[in-house]
Each structure stands twice: as structure tokens, then as C-alpha cells.
Automatic annotation (TrEMBL):
Pathway field: Carbohydrate metabolism; tricarboxylic acid cycle; isocitrate from oxaloacetate: step 1/2
Protein name, UniProt field: Citrate synthase
UniProt entry tagged with the keyword Iron-sulfur: no
GO molecular function: citrate synthase activity
Active site (catalytic residues): 281, 338
Keywords (A to Z) from UniProt: Transferase, Tricarboxylic acid cycle
UniProt source species: Mucilaginibacter mallensis
Length: 402
């Protein structure tokens, strides 16, 4: 490994790599992925094993602290998390202030950033390890409450407070789908599906939002501001926003009569800006291992919940046609994780505009782990260079002479 503290500015040459297609910005021991072979591992553990055997909160612990927890460690982690799930009562004023139809991602990024106002100790650039850990626990614990309350606000329903008796995922589902006056049973099938989805999204090395979290954090910004920046980066339809776009696209195809060939032709037409949402990936050029797991999970969940979703049939047909088409084969375009996640979220009862927020909830442990690693490594401030292409020398011209 390179000793980062010994690196000095190398002036003279600048490498131009627009979109960072081949440029490594850091060294990381968190997530390994091989885009050619379709391998994804968190801290060395294959995603397939974690999705089958672990829980989201155990995976969060693994990503943030580097090891699978012992029974005692996970008990303490759950205890700490459950004691920080409440948000400050004054935060309700923010929820009240948003128009009820405003996009949940805009609300989420503002609300997470506002946590720094309630926990100003996070502003100290040189927090002790204990203070830093408390900030980590707080953001992880409060995010499900914030996400659920954004949803309740969109419905105009009263907020449901977190309850210590529930585990992380059940607590989230209870705050989202629970009622104040009646006891709502949270279906274990739903809890298990939610755990799987969150695990699959928990980290993905230096993607757009994670790199954003690291670069914002590299200026010694607090964790809430850094995570909020990651949420903004995730919002875009080319990144996390794709899961919402996929369902909207499938619905459009359904309303249009379900002619998948027509839509595949549109996606291939270079004069048409339409892209097949949920297809293609910057790194996976063979298959996305998360998509494989999610496709199976999708079939299982719809069957267990007894849901017959025509949109799923359209998705399968699209995949089948695209995978045989030379355009997609030559460009190595395969379904990514977002192609099927939206269908599961829909089956669980989430409205479309909440999908990207759920992605953010899943990605949070990854952002935290990467932010922490960047701090522990004492990485220098992120500051890309450029190749200047503008005018060279010009003299100022007074306005009446232009
Ligand atoms: N539909 C049709 N054509 C596509 C698609 C698509 N979904 N994706 C890429 N292509 C084509 C491009 O037009 C380009 O064709 P060309 O070589 O003839 O110009 C070629 O494939 C390469 O595409 P790039 O955009 O250069 O690939 P890049 O690695 O920059 O982009 C990305 C990857 C953004 C994911 C892209 O495939 C895309 O826009 N997909 C749809 C959006 C999506 O699903 N995003 C989610 C990504 S996964 C995640 O964030 C969790």
C-alpha cells in the first residue's frame, strides 16, 4: 500500500480522464468488485452469502468496523442505534415546511444536512474516535425515522415514533406503514425482502455518490453535510434515480400496449435521447451480481405476497429481447441492480418517488464506512485538475464598446 502522507503534488503533467473512467482516487479495503467477472464482496465476503445469511444491520457493522460482529458487539450496536432513533422535535417544523408533493430526495438531503445544526459537536474537524463514532451512530439511527416521516408527510398522516423493541428494519417498516391507533403486523416476508434489498445496495466502492461523500468529507466537512451531498449525487437518474425511472418506463410501455420491440428500437436510436433505464453499468461489463440476486428475490416475493404484476412480465420480456440484441451485446449492456429493485419496492407498497430514498437508506453504511476510512487515512483534500480550453489573453472592453 502507498503511504498517502508521503505523496506530494506532481506538478507538470495532468492526466485527462473525463468521468474518471480509469483513474483511481483512493485506496480502500471496504468493497471489492470485478466488473468483468461480476464479483462483488464486502470486506472479502461475497455478496451472495451476505444476501442469503446476514441482516442489513450486521452488514452495516461489517462495512463500518471491518469485521462481522460477535453476538455481544451486535447487541451493543443495536442498543446504541435504538437509543438514537428519535429526531429532535424541532425538526418537525422542517417536515411541515416542505410542500407535501415535493420530491423525497430533496427533502432527505436537506433534512440530513440539518442534523449538523442539532449536533454541532459534529462540526469539530478533529473529533475523537468516540465522538466520531457517536456521529456515525446518530446518522445511521436517525435516517430511517427521517425517511418514514417524509413518507407520512406525503400522505398527510401523523408521524409514527420509533420504538426500541423493534430491530432496525422492522422499526423502519413500522414507522412507514404502521398506524397510531391500531397494531399493524409487519409481515416477516416483507422484513426479509427489505433486508435483502438494503444489503445489496449497502456499498459499491467509488461510485458517483460515494466519491462525492469522500470528496466533500476531505475538506473536513461534517458527516451530515457529507452524507447529504451523497444523497444529492444519488438522486440523478443516471445513478440511484434510475430505480424510479425504471418503473415509470415499464408503466409507460404497459400503457403503450406493451410493445417491447418498439421501445428497444427507441433505445438504440441515436437520434432519440431515450435509454433503457436499468440497463448498463460503468463497471459491470458482463453481469451485475446484484441483479441476479434481486431477480430471484423479486420472483419469490411476488409469489409469497400473491402479487401478479404485469409490469414484471414486461421487464422480463424487455430483458429477454435486449440480451439477444447485437446493440446491447456489443456494448455489454445488462440489467443492473435497479432493473428489478423497483418492482419489489412497488410490491412492498412504496410509491415510486420513494424508491431512490430507499436506495439512500441502503447505501448509508457504505457512505459512512468510506467517509470514516478517508478520515482514518488522513487523505488530503480532493481537488481534481483540468485542461484549460478557454480564451488565453483578452483585454477588458467597456460595455458601450461591446
Ligand atoms: N440504453 C441504451 N443505450 C445505452 C444504455 C442504455 N441504458 N446505456 C449505455 N448505452 C450505450 C450508449 O449510448 C453508448 O453507445 P455508443 O457507444 O454507441 O455511444 C454506450 O452504450 C456506452 O454508454 P456510456 O453512456 O458511455 O456508458 P457509461 O459507462 O458512461 O454509463 C450508465 C453507464 C450511466 C449506467 C449508462 O449505461 C446508463 O445511462 N444506463 C441507464 C441508467 C441506469 O440504469 N443507471 C443506473 C446505473 S446502476 C446504479 O447507479 C445503481
Amino acid at each position: 500500500a502507498i503511504d498517502i502522507s508521503k505523496l506530494r503534488d506532481q506538478t507538470g503533467y495532468v492526466t485527462l480522464d473525463i468521468g474518471y473512467k480509469n483513474t483511481g482516487a483512493t485506496q480502500s479495503a471496504i468493497t471489492f468488485l470485478d466488473g468483468e467477472l461480476g464479483i462483488l464482496k464486502y470486506r472479502g465476503y461475497p455478496i451472495e452469502q451476505l444476501a442469503a445469511k446476514s441482516s442489513f444491520i450486521e452488514v452495516a457493522y461489517l462495512l463500518i468496523y471491518g469485521e462481522l460482529p460477535t453476538e455481544e458487539q451486535i447487541k451493543k450496536f443495536n442498543f446504541d442505534l435504538s437509543h438514537h432513533t428519535l429526531v429532535h422535535e424541532d425538526m418537525k417544523k422542517f417536515f411541515d415546511g416542505f410542500p407535501s408533493k415535493s420530491h423525497p430526495m430533496g427533502q432527505l438531503s436537506s433534512l440530513v444536512s440539518s442534523l449538523s445544526a442539532f449536533y454541532p459537536e459534529s462540526l469539530k474537524p478533529n473529533q475523537t474516535a468516540e465522538e466520531l463514532n457517536l456521529s456515525i451512530i446518530k446518522v445511521l439511527a436517525k435516517m430511517p425515522t427521517i425517511v418514514s416521516w417524509i413518507y407520512k408527510k406525503s400522505l398527510g398522516h401523523p408521524y409514527i415514533y420509533p420504538q426500541n423493541k423493534y430491530d432496525y428494519v422492522t422499526n423502519f417498516l413500522n414507522m412507514t406503514f404502521g398506524q397510531r391507533t391500531e397494531v399493524v403486523e409487519i409481515d416477516p416476508v416483507v422484513v426479509s425482502a427489505m433486508n435483502t434489498l438494503l444489503i445489496l445496495h449497502a456499498d459499491h466502492e467509488q461510485n458517483c455518490s460515494t466519491s462525492t461523500v469522500r470528496i466533500v468529507g476531505s475538506s473536513a466537512s461534517n458527516i451530515y453535510a457529507s452524507v447529504s451531498a451523497g444523497i444529492s449525487a444519488l438522486w440523478g437518474p443516471l445513478h440511484g434515480g434510475a430505480n424510479q425511472e425504471v418503473i415509470e418506463m415499464l408503466q409507460k410501455i404497459q400503457e403503450d400496449g406493451g410493445d417491447t420491440d418498439k421501445w428497444i428500437a427507441k433505445a438504440k436510436d441515436k437520434n432519440d435521447p431515450f435509454r433503457l433505464m436499468g440497463f448498463g453499468h460503468r463497471v459491470y461489463k458482463n453481469f451485475d451480481p446484484r441483479a441476479k440476486i434481486i431477480k430471484k428475490a423479486c420472483d419469490d416475493i411476488l409469489e409469497k405476497l400473491g402479487i401478479d404484476d404485469e409490469v414484471l412480465e414486461i421487464a422480463k420480456k424487455l430483458e429477454e429481447v435486449a440480451l439477444k440484441d447485437p446493440y446491447f451485446i456489443e456494448r455489454k449492456l445488462y440489467p443492473n441492480v435497479d432493473f428489478y429493485s423497483g418492482i419489489i419496492y412497488r410490491a412492498l407498497g412504496f410509491p415510486t418517488d420513494m424508491f431512490t430514498v430507499l436506495f439512500a437508506l441502503g447505501r448509508l453504511p457504505g457512505w459512512i464506512a468510506q467517509w470514516k476510512e478517508m478520515k482514518v487515512h488522513k487523505e488530503p483534500i480532493g481537488r481534481p485538475r483540468q485542461i484549460y480550453t478557454g480564451a488565453t489573453n483578452r483585454d477588458y472592453v467597456d460595455i458601450q464598446d461591446r
